[in-house]
Amino acid sequence: MSSDWGDLRRWPDVEAANLLAWDASDRLILDEAGALVREVGDVVVIGDRHGALTLGALEAGASRVRVHQDGILGERALLANAARRGLGRGESGMPFTHLPLDASLVDGARLVLVQLPRSLDELDEIAQLVAAHGHPDVRVVAGGRVKHMSRSMNDVLLQSFQTVSASLARQKSRVLHAGRPRAGVTVTWPRRQHHDDVGLTLVAHGGVFAGTTVDIGTRLLLDHLSSMRTAERAIDLACGNGVVASALALARPEVQVLATDQSAAAVASARATADANGFSDRVTVSRADGLESELDSSAQLIILNPPFHVGAAVHTGLAERLFADAGRVLEPGGELWAVWNSPLNYRPILDRVIGSTRQVERTSKFTVTSSRKRT
């Protein structure tokens, strides 16, 4: 990749002075892959945040890149950054292809570049896929910031590969090299768990928040399902594993639910959760940037457990975008029920962008609020 990375942007993802489109780990991954990129030609990239790895691999000599990005905003940022560099013009189109995190992504792959996820489960799913479907000589070059890495990552990779070694650290980043897939590795994801207390079976891929569990904040929301307004149509915004959407379908046989998330892992998990509980006819699952595909004033009830991290940084930008979307899509008198980390104090924002907001429950960690769309 060129020495000047200043043209790379996060847009249309959240942008701020402390949020960058790349970091030193992207450079180190490409440097550690070295001449293999050109030799292999067809490179697989997993976890590219905003395009640095994909565009860097192409600059290093890759003829084609198969790429998986969990977030839809990351996909769009890659496309925008590629267009800014003049790629995609003419008959050949973009020299990279977005693919789901499945066998088609890594089939026969000889070189896989990975931006290490913070979730060990997500890394396990990636490692299993590569070991099961990649070339017998496949090489994995996976990097990240040292402060977010642990020895457990080596252990996870060793479950699918016979050799794992670490590079020297550089600019607070490090790379793990994995190779020689173990014989007989199979993909054990997604996984499922039944919860008697909520009457649901949850299904989750490795990269989804909370996995097959019900996180503490969501449990608080579920306690108040009976207090939420009646609705023919409701939305589980930032749906994660889909527990809220399926719980609402279970509690209210008359309701149609849209579960939506920008994460591919979340969407696949929420769809599988709905199917596992027999709600596929009443729970529709969509991958989107918030509520971009929804009409104004079209929903009576929206339920939201917003993310409070942008990458590794605590940042309110994503939550504020989701609140604004909810304000647009709710019909007058409609309700947004939200749970959020109490120290973030979202209530003034909710009052402003939705309408009158009341505190329903508060603990030391989480606050549940109900906001009524102003008429």
UniProtKB/TrEMBL annotation:
Record InterPro entries: DNA_methylase_N6_adenine_CS, RlmG_N, RsmC/RlmG, SAM-dependent_MTases_sf, Small_mtfrase_dom
GO MF annotation terms: N-methyltransferase activity; nucleic acid binding; S-adenosylmethionine-dependent methyltransferase activity
RlmG N-terminal domain sequence ranges: 7-178
Keyword field contains Acyltransferase: no
Sequence ranges assigned to domain Methyltransferase small in this UniProt record: 200-369
Keyword Nucleotide-binding: no
GO biological process, alphabetically ordered: methylation; rRNA processing
Matching SUPFAM superfamilies: S-adenosyl-L-methionine-dependent methyltransferases (SSF53335)
A Pfam family this chain is assigned to: RLMG_N
CDD domains the UniProt entry points to: AdoMet_MTases
PANTHER family noted in UniProt: RIBOSOMAL RNA LARGE SUBUNIT METHYLTRANSFERASE G, RIBOSOMAL RNA SMALL SUBUNIT METHYLTRANSFERASE C
Protein name as catalogued: SAM-dependent methyltransferase
Lineage: Bacteria, Bacillati, Actinomycetota, Actinomycetes, Micrococcales
